[in-house]
Design brief:
The protein is α+β, with helices and mostly antiparallel strands. The protein folds into two domains: 34 residues, no CATH class; 108 residues, no CATH class. The chain contains five helices and five strands; from the N terminus they run ααβββββααα. The strands form two sheets. Strands 3-4-5 form a three-stranded antiparallel beta sheet. A two-stranded antiparallel sheet has the order 1-2. β4 and β5 form a beta hairpin. It is flat and about 50 Å long. The two termini are 30 Å apart.
Length: 148
Amino acid sequence: MNLGTKEEYVSKFGENRKEEAGKYWEHVTKVTKDKDVSIIPKGDYCYVFLKKGKNKYGIPKSKSCPYMSNREYNGVVVSYCEYLEWGDLGGITDEEYAKVLEYFGSEEKMEEILPLFFLWDSCKECGENYYTGEEYDEKYGEACLNEK
């Protein structure tokens, strides 16, 4: 992931977020350094629709990002990104949240490992291989894989 220098990245945030942004930059540049971004699906999600094949409801088949996984904490399954080495707590109940919190012992420790927000809904949080605006409209078809 190319975030630029730490100074460039942190400068995009207000004073009250600079420390947090710096920690994010340090983590992401460290854990993604030697990982292959070419295997991350193109587009906004942690999956890509396949050009061939549909499920029994007529929805195109899809293939998940190889870095997308799940982790279990105290019996609660949460979404996890092996690329970022972070997960999230989205889509869980208050009871499940309490179980995960019990596992980690504090919200601070829990948020070190599970700081993401939309991964549970397969929304890409790594920022890799995004398309934006007109580029997205022109290249969306390229995001589909030629697989069965």
